[in-house]
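Handout, section 3.2

Students often ask what a structure token actually looks like in practice. Rather than define it abstractly, here is a full record for SMC hinge domain-containing protein. The first block is the sequence as you would receive it.
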Amino acid sequence: MTVKEDKWTFAVESAISRNLETFVLHSQKDRKVFFDMCRSLNVQTPNVIITSFRVPPHDTRGNEPSRDIPTIERIIHFSNPVIRNCLIDTASIESIMLIETDEEARDLLNGSCPINVRKAFTRSGGQGQGKNSQGGVYRFYPNQSKDVTARYLTKAKNYDVKQLNFIIDTEKAKCRDLDASIRRVKLAVSELWKTRQQLLKQLGDMDTRKQSMESERRRLERKMDEMGDEDTEDTAIGSLKNSITEIRANIKRYHEERDEYMKTRGQLEEELGKARGKSGGCEEKSRRCTEWIRTT
């Protein structure tokens, strides 16, 4: 279906927006097949209307306002009578009036609403219902959104097929490049992870050696305390002191080496985080690129 006059596109879409994402099916059997297909494709099942495709076009002459009043049903060109029937059944489009401005709608609906007009919509998306000498209740709600652009009923654009194919090929090439980048980044992440694990193992080995050196230092210090200075040769005490001094020097070197390792580990963790972020960004770009190609 298409809107005959562009100026009414947003008003029409505002009036029947709930129906525009609904699928129309002929029977419950069709519904089952359709839902099974959605589940197999892991697609959320949309709203559906079950109606016989063999029903002739509805005769709405008894429910319409006078011929000089524009209505949704009159402003739409239907290529399929089944869709027209559904919109008449679910939205009563034959009795929804179209009015140019909100001000005109307020003036008309508040006491002078035409016969057989159930609702009214304005070009800006305002909507209301009216009253007249026969009764009714007046209400009007202006559209609070600044966006008055139709999403579904805009006229299809004519595309240059060669140009569109060129754009698609270009996007496919971008996807291939992104996929290659993803593989390279993932390989880099894997290598960084291996280096990180090796570094952690080296740090663990260093901690073990430090504990061993600390234990040896304490043992030698206890031994030297036990020996005392009385009956012990100076050479023996000197040897112990030298051993303790050497161990202390080794422990100091250990701390210096460990500080360097920790610095390297921090840099490695930062590089790993950046690489993972780059990988995620490439994957998101690739996903958007693939989705664009799929929907074009």
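Discussion prompt for tutorial groups: The chain has two domains: 2-141, 161-295. How would you have guessed this from the sequence alone?
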